[in-house]
Write a structure and sequence with these properties.
Length: 125
């Protein structure tokens, strides 16, 4: 459990709050049923887990230029390593922009095809 989670748990103890979410006066220990019915009501048919929302938050925040230290802090990670390792996906546009930002001479280099390799191997024999 990270720093903020531990801090929140301690604060909850002080005010007598033993759980974060309640339903009909009882602690909610699972969101499975509610999660699935919410997806159904929203017309979402693909499998999405609550964790996927966390992943999307980090990815979209970083894509939008958010400070990686701030994202790690909000997600309650001790440092940015977890964010970089697990959450930062790249979008097609970001990959394209990266390639297009390369100097022109690098982009023009084409890999040798298998066909060209076969021709060169024949010439060496």
């Amino acid at each position: 459990m990270g720093g903020k989670s531990k801090e929140w748990k301690e604060q909850d103890k002080i005010v007598g709050q033993d759980y974060l979410i309640a339903y009909k006066g009882k602690p909610l220990t699972s969101i499975k049923k509610t999660w699935h019915s919410s997806l159904k009501r929203a017309g979402i048919t693909r499998r999405i887990r609550p964790y996927d929302l966390r992943h999307a938050f980090a990815t979209y925040a970083l894509d939008a230029g958010a400070d990686i230290n701030a994202v790690a802090d909000i997600m309650d990670h001790a440092n940015v390593t977890m964010v970089l390792k697990h959450y930062q996906d790249t979008k097609e546009a970001a990959r394209r922009n990266t390639v297009e930002s390369l100097p022109e001479f690098i982009i023009k280099i084409k890999p040798i095809s298998q066909e060209n390799n076969a021709d060169k191997n024949e010439a060496v024999k």
